[in-house]
Amino acid sequence: MQVPPSSKLADRQDMAVDFRPPAHVMRLGAMGASFPHRLSFMRCLTRRMAREAWTFERAVFNLDDNGFGYAVWRIGTPGGPLSFVAFSTALDPSMRTDRVIAERWDASFALLEGEATEADIQRLEANVPLQEAGRCSPKELVLSRANKSVRLFEHICECLSQGRQPDMAEIVKVGYLMRTTAVYGNGKFGLGDYDKACSNPSLAGPFRAEMLTVFMIRSFQFDLINHVAARRGGANATMLERPYARALGIGNSTGLGMAPFLIRHPVLFHRWIEARETALAAVRSVPEADADKRERYRTLLERLRGHVEEWNVDDERHQRDIEAVRSDLAQVASIEVAESFPWDGLYRAVEQGMTSHTCEAIASLLIELYPARVDDLEDKMSAGGTPKIAAGMPLSSLKDMIERHYDWVLTIDFDDPSALHHFWYYSQDKEEPRLGRRFEEPGAEKEMHIGMGWYVSRLHGALEAMNEEQLETSTARFLLENPGHRMAVKRVFTTAQFPYSEIRDNTVGRSLLPIDMLRCKLSFFGATKFDPRSDLWTRITMYQGAPLIDELDTERADDWWSPVFRARSC
Amino acid sequence: MVTGFPGPVMLTSFDEIRRTANRALDANGAAPGIAEECSWACAWLEAAGYDGLAMMADALDETPIEARQPSFRGAYGIVDLGGSSAVFCAPGLVELAEAEGRVFANNVKHGLYVLPFAVRSDLSLGCPVDPGFAIGGKREKNPYRENIDAAIQNGLQVDKAAFDRIYAYSRNILVPETEASRLTGAGAGLTDND
User: Fold this and answer.
1) Are A391 and B95 within 8 A, CB to CB?
2) Nearest to B11 among A190, A256, A536 (CB)
3) How far is B23 from chain A (nearest CA, A)?
4) Domain-by-domain residue ranges, chain A?
5) Which member of A392, A429, A483 has the closest CB to residue B92?
6) Per the CB < 8 Å rule, is B100 touching A474?
7) Contact B72/B98 with Cβ under 8 angstroms?
């Protein structure tokens, strides 16, 4: 048996194959090929809501004929009640922008702990539509806003008001009625702390409150459009049928803010990757598969092929990647699955002959096959503190650790300006994270601490310059004398204990493609239909194909991986 | 109504203090890695009933930017900080105590910033500010846990003037935008009424 990367999961006795090594998994190229999987947070949430029999009651629906007003849902969880409050407002088209720098939106939202009282509603009405310019209380856990996809909203509304269902092809093409432009959690605008949210065990997981908020926004958009269509069409109107509603998710434009998070939360990031890799290793370790599993594999493979067929983007490079996956999957379908260690054999065949995108897609598929081997890992995807520096460790040992865990850093020449080409910063414009060119643009002196390879390289250089006696100094005393190396020392200790915590590429070099980091994180959210609009940001769809709010007690609550929507016209 | 502050109070959260203080230190010359730890200490101190925000603001006011990464040498178990603020070096002092058994730190300003790290490491402070102290050595109790938990559940009332001072420092991390940078953000270049 191979030893898993950290001690927390070392109790798994069912591993016959290796974990994929950090030297592969943590490269940006592999991260940028990630696919959503059954441990993605949206999947975990819908599974949990079904398992714990959460209840949803629309307590207030105070919208006018045009759909403007507010609505409140009461959400019952085993850990206590929550409230979701939505405000829908008229928006001049000239004010509608997906940029984080916008100041007005079609709708704004808050997720609250407990019951929302009249006083809460009044307070929220004065603040939530203002978003960053307003103020929340610790009772609020999430603040968000969204804009309509105006053209699709109008198309569907018109169809429904005339008693018809909309054009499925249009729905599939766009994928959402609303797109969020920010989903804010703890640490901002007075919102409640993450640890407070986690005091409700039903919300105790990474981004669970945020994912719940997006799920509720999706539900709100259906109630909103049915309401407006009914007011417009009167007796002629009909409601959006379930297959059409399921095909609608929530859109989002995701930018650079996602990327620094992964670097600043190394232990948490490790947990996510480790859970996924443990799941994959567990499935690859299955010695033989019965006929049901083989049939399920065939079903999921066909579904994956259909999903990828329906996925098209404007960006040429990414469209080529998608087409390569389509081609690869046709070949995968012809691979005969072996009797002995069938999934390991399949995975190896894909890994050896196909693109990294196909490899990650098949990894996702395999994880989907064995819920019983995988689903308990969702409870191991939260952080749990940062490792302490071993203060008494001599610097010689620290140097050894760098050479063992950061060998990739030692191959980069940071004296070459191209290795330091980029810097990450917060713009004065609504604090939007951006990427600058260090030697061409102002602001590098205010850069975020993102270039971990660079810091560790400098630390290693300082240790290389020491004699044997100096290398016997304790790490604590070294740091007291050389405080500038503190971050690098912390990273080395963290990576030694949590090997999936560090991205093993230069995150400030010229060849950096931030989109790779975004895709990795978004895949853990469960986003689909990645639609990169540049190397710096992407559009995505969330919850497309997910069960509706009143379908959580059905079989489909947990069977929406790689959804396929057959285009139907009204 | 919370009393004890000379001016208005504001309701905030543990994480908001930590985030704001983190940026304030990062943007104003603290050593990389210090901000993450001492911003946590700032929130911890506020939750425990101490003036973490005001002390940090004072430290930033009083310390020239070139002195915000203080470096210390000294004999085994002894450090003379020469009047430097613990806001910029507190975790290192506790690590040194762990490595060398105990540490005598002289000429320390804002020494309370050592307290959160000492509690976290189960080490006692040899001074009467710490109700958990036992004349050095192993800490016997954590009398702050209840306050920290309450702050996380209910939020924190803090001195608004002190928070505003830290918030003002945190704004120094922002880079003025250029037209070129504006065109690279998420959502840029699309028709938003589609």
Assistant:
1) yes
2) A190
3) 9
4) 12-40+261-383+510-536, 52-255, 395-497
5) A483
6) yes
7) no
User: Of A433, A382, A406, which is closest to residue A275 (Cα–Cα)?
Assistant: A382
User: Which of B10, B15, B190 should be substituted to probe chain A, the one whose Cβ sees the most A Cβ atoms within 10 Å?
Assistant: B15
Helix H or strand E segment including A113: strand A107-113
| Number of Cβ pairs < 8 A linking chain A and chain B | 199
Q: How far is CA A501 from CA A36, A207, A292, A407, in A?
A: 19, 18, 37, 15
With beta carbons less than 8 A apart as the criterion, state whether A75 and A55 touch: yes
Reported residue count of chain B is 194
Would an 8 Å CB–CB cutoff place A114 in contact with chain B? no
Q: What is the pLDDT of residues B13-60, one digit of tens each?
A: 999 999 999 999 999 999 999 999 999 999 999 999 999 999 999 999
Note whether A483 contacts B: Cβ–Cβ < 8 A.
Answer: yes
A477: contact with B, CB 8 A cutoff = yes
- Residues in B closer than 8 angstroms to A104, CB to CB, are none
Asked if B69 and A93 come within 8 Å (Cβ–Cβ), the reply is no
Q: Given an 8 Å threshold on Cβ–Cβ distance, is A477 in contact with B99?
A: yes
* Lateral strand order in the sheet of A528-532: A55-63, A69-77, A80-88, A107-113, A140-148, A176-184, A249-254, A538-542, A528-532
Q: What is the CA radius of gyration of chain A?
A: 25
- C-alpha B143/C-alpha B131 separation (Å) is 7
What percent of chain B is helix, strand and coil (3-state, nearest 5)?
A: 50, 10, 40
pLDDT tens across the length of chain A (570 residues): 343 444 344 455 668 888 999 999 999 999 999 999 999 999 999 999 999 999 999 999 999 999 999 999 999 999 999 999 999 999 988 888 777 668 899 999 999 999 999 999 999 999 999 999 999 999 999 999 999 999 999 999 999 999 999 999 999 989 999 999 899 999 999 999 999 999 999 999 999 999 999 999 999 999 999 999 999 999 999 999 999 999 999 999 888 888 899 999 999 999 999 999 999 999 999 999 999 999 999 999 999 999 999 999 999 999 999 999 999 999 999 999 999 999 999 999 999 989 999 999 999 999 999 999 999 999 999 987 778 899 999 999 999 999 999 999 999 999 999 999 999 999 988 788 889 999 999 999 999 999 999 999 999 999 999 999 999 999 999 999 999 999 999 999 999 999 999 999 999 999 999 999 999 999 999 999 999 988 888 899 999 999 999 999 877 789 999 999 975 443
Instruction: Give A147's strand partners.
Output: A179
Whether the CB of A188 is below 8 Å from some CB of chain B: the reply is yes
Cβ within 8 Å, pair B71-A480: yes
Q: How far is B3 from chain A, CA to nearest CA, in Å?
A: 20
Q: Do B33 and A150 touch (CB under 8 A)?
A: no
Residues of B in contact with A449 (CB under 8 A): 26, 32-33
Q: How many CB atoms lie within 10 A of CB B177?
A: 18
A482 touches chain B (CB under 8 A): yes
ipTM for the predicted complex: 0.91
Answer yes or no: do A484 and B31 touch at CB < 8 A.
yes
- The Cα–Cα gap between A380 and A378 comes to 5
CA B166-B63-B20 angle, to 5 degrees, is 20
